[in-house]
Write a structure and sequence with these properties.
It comes from Dyadobacter linearis. With about 300 residues, the chain is an alpha+beta fold. It has seven helices and twelve strands. The strands form three sheets. It has a five-stranded antiparallel beta sheet with strand order 1-2-5-3-4, with helices on one face. A four-stranded antiparallel beta sheet has the order 6-7-8-9, with helices on one face.
Amino acid sequence: MQLMDISGNSFNFLRKRLCVCICVAVVLLSGIENAFANNESIRFAEHVNLALRRTAHHLLLQNGDSSTNIPPVNQIDANTFSVRIENLAEYRKLPELLKQSLTVQKIERSYNVMVFNCETGALQLGYNMLDLNQPGGVPCENRDGKAGCFVVQVSFEPNLQKAAAEPFSAWWIFPFGTGLAGLGLFAWKRSRSRKSSNLPVEDKPTSAFETSFGNSVFNSQNLTLTTLDSQHQLTYREAKLLDLFVRHRNQVLERDFILKSVWEDEGITVGRSVDVFVSRLRKLLATDSSIKISAIHGVGYKMEIHS
């Protein structure tokens, strides 16, 4: 009869593996989601870059300038961009040209525009896109301005639709985690069906795992010892030692044989362990007068079973 090493380690191991799998999956899928978000931000920045460069180009052409270099567009943050225009004479034409450029790039987000003097940093023109449709038009649009170097800065409103959806962007975590948990539970149950639990069970054990000796019954699956009306839960070593005695009932077992059979898998054996565990079994079997574990001086032990 082969004893099975029963412990909660199997369940704990599977639970840890399941947690690791869920964490790795969440990280990977979050990384994928973040990658999509980053790509969207990059694409938006590219469209704004092209729109501002187009605007600067046409502003210079309006002034008859086709040679002044347009420097790179500066991205101040995720929603704010600026471009420096060295020879801007009439910034009154800026609102309509910027609107056209943003339309070409299919940018529909609301925005604010500020035009600063390169040298003094003074604000020359400022408006919101909604001002384009107001009766009075863009503030300061028709005021005379001197030609010079100006910085056109455009600040877009955050993508509120995306921001509102962000709290729910991880909706997949719950069903995905539930699925993994189900797989983990299925694996645990299969593992448990192959091994018995180290806790007492209420179901009636199968006879294949039961051995009767004297007036007692030993169940190697549940690691239980039933003596008369009492049931005792055994440790793994207690069960292994009892199994050895039961299979060699009424035989003298040498100490070295016991140590090798019960403790060999630990790699280190201690002779005193035999005496300690025999003492435990004697106490558990004390109510069964038909069973006696006797010490054979200088040799080992013998389980005697009387009818």
